Amino acid sequence: MRPVLSSLFILTSAAVVLALGPIAGDAQQNPTRKSRAAPAPLPLATAPLPGTPAPATAPEARPTTELRETVQADVSTRSVSITSSFTGTEIVIFGAVDNSRQSSAESGLYDVVIVLEGTPTRLVSRRKSNVAGIWLNTQSLTFESVPSYYAIASTRPLDELADPLLLRENDIGFEQVRMAPISGWETGLTTADLADFKTAVIRLKQKDGLYKEEQYGVVFIGRSLFRASIELPANVPVGPLVARVYLLREGQLLSTYTARVKLEREGLERVLHNFAFDHPLFYGVFTVAVAVGAGLLASTMFRRASH
Amino acid sequence: MNFYLPIAEMSANVFVFLGMGGAVGFLSGMFGVGGGFLMTPLLIFSGIPPAVAVGTESAQIVASSVSGAIAQWRRNNIDLMMGTVLLGGGIIGSVFGVQVVKELRKAGQFDFVVAVAYVTFLGVIGTLMLIESLNTIRKVRSGTASPLRDAQHHNWIHRLPLKMRFKRSKLYISAIPPFLIGAFVGVLAAIMGVGGGFVMVPAMIYLLRVPTNVVVGTSLFQIVFVTAATTILHATQNKTVDVVLALILMIGGVIGAQFGAVAGQRLKGEQLRFLLAALVLLVCLRIAWSLVAAPDEFYSIALAIGGRG
């Protein structure tokens, strides 16, 4: 019974991956990683086009006749709406290894790392110090682009599955989160200070639940199918998310895949937010009208009640 | 029940904020004060960004003062001339204050300035009220009558130019002091998210010698319009007014105020003032503690606003 069910699941999931693939076609080829100084040597070019089978001929680097493993993935929810009742949600990222050579889900031949990253935002970090007995912000550092959200899920702890160089080249891990500091009003910062500010940003983001690492968050559920669920907290900053999926074997990167998640305000939430930001004057007048209305309504209601 | 606040950008428990509005409304109904000086710190303690707390609270004060102002208007307790001068100053003060908030937020010092402003004002007002109420309680016990308003004597205020006749207050004084008082209150309204009655009422009684029967009405008149202007200015300049949060607080506030007013009638004036003074000093100490105690976390992060942050 059990194998029948699981193989059914694999079949349907794989079909879903294949069927959905072309819709997300613009998202595939890892486009955000180009600005790295040291380009990843690995197979950005060999990542398969959606819906098409892996190339029939093996790359030159592999003299064997076996087909090259590639990874495809998708997310459970392509578009998350932030409505008035939004209290966070869970995103399931699932994928399949094409030409998998592992015999079962438990054989552990492959490692998968999933990075779900939010939009880069300009962020200022401030440090308090004691001035005449009072704690106040005395130093600040502005970072040009800090991912608003950053979640990593992997089959094993990162330091076990690949060497630091590979992780660094592919921007995997909190230490690799890119935050370009731009000098603020304050110039007396040393390199050590800079490092302190960076770790503080990561620490505070982790405290807010916006940066997180699930060391065993990716689970194989068949010889080729894997899944991971990543929690989006209620305070997740609104904006698009990018999910990068890395397939590794024995510390070598075999294939990558990119999927996208839209995160948008919907309904009343969207109306009010747009109102406040696009027509601030009318929004202000509207708020005052609501306040005056509430005050008048309350006074007439309670006057009637007390008579 | 949770509701995602569109400007504060966080999911908030509606009942927590309804309860908060209700509790502060109860106290403000009981003591006959606006409650902004309690509500804003409470909002900040509960995780609302200070700038959003201040901007949103001005909207709530509009709601809580408007019915009071109308009631005073019906009883002819508003000196319109005096109110207009206070209001003129108040609007200018508010424009300036909102600009100050904008600059302080850019420099990352807004939270600190709000805390210092609260400690200063609550400390001074609380101490004065405590002394005054204790004196009155002692005098009532020993049987001496409480002194009435001092007879008008000529002080420096009478030597200032631009004299105006304030008929309802039966005063002929310069327009400059009420204008400056109004302006000062406007700045406080913009920076602290308060109505400013706690400054305006004593200033009108002791500095301008406005008769007590018109003080509250005239002050409420100014507060309604200044907080309305402040709300609009915060909405346009700082985008820190959360209409959903404001509405939740308003609903809690107006209901709480009705029960508070009933409870307040059972206590004597000086006892009420003593309790209020104690409350004000408690809030003051709590904020002062946050300034002097070594923080658990020395760093903070925020989205950079404008320029180079």
In short:
The complex is a heterodimer of chains A (307) and B (309). Chain A has 307 residues and is of the alpha+beta class. Chain A has helices spanning 2-20, 158-161, 164-169, 191-207, 267-278, 280-306; strands at residues 70-75, 79-82, 89-98, 110-117, 120-131, 134-147, 150-154, 181-182, 211-214, 218-220, 225-232, 241-249, 252-265.
Structural overview:
- Helices cover 28% and strands 32% of the residues of chain A.
- With 307 residues, chain A is of the alpha+beta class.
- Chain A has a 6-stranded mixed β-sheet with strand order 2-13-12-4-7-9.
- In chain A, helix 5 (267-278) packs across helix 6.
- Chain B is mostly helical and 309 residues long.
- Chain B is built from 10 helices and 5 strands, in the order E-E-H-H-H-H-H-E-E-H-H-H-H-H-E.
- Chain B has helices at residues 14-31, 36-45, 50-74, 80-107, 110-142, 176-192, 197-208, 212-238, 243-264, 269-292; strands spanning 2-5, 10-13, 163-166, 171-174, 299-303.
- In chain B, strands 1-2 form a two-stranded antiparallel ribbon. In chain B, strands 3-4 form a two-stranded antiparallel ribbon.
- In chain B, helix 3 crosses helix 9 (243-264), helix 4 packs across helix 6 and helix 4 packs parallel to helix 8.
- The longest helix of chain B has 33 residues, at 110-142.
- Chain B is globular.
- The two termini of chain B are 36 Å apart.
- Classes of the chains: A alpha+beta (307), B mainly alpha (309).
- At the A-B interface, strand 5, strand 6, helix 4, helix 5 and helix 6 of A face strand 1, helix 3, helix 8, helix 9 and strand 5 of B.
Quaternary state of the chains: heterodimer
Residues in helices of chain B, as a percent range = 55-70%
Spell out the helices and strands of chain B N to C. EEHHHHHEEHHHHHE
Amino- and carboxy-terminal Cα gap of chain A: 73 Å
Low-confidence runs of at least 5 consecutive residues of chain B? none
Helical segment count of chain B: 10
Described by strand count, sense and barrel closure, the largest sheet of chain B is: 2 strands, antiparallel
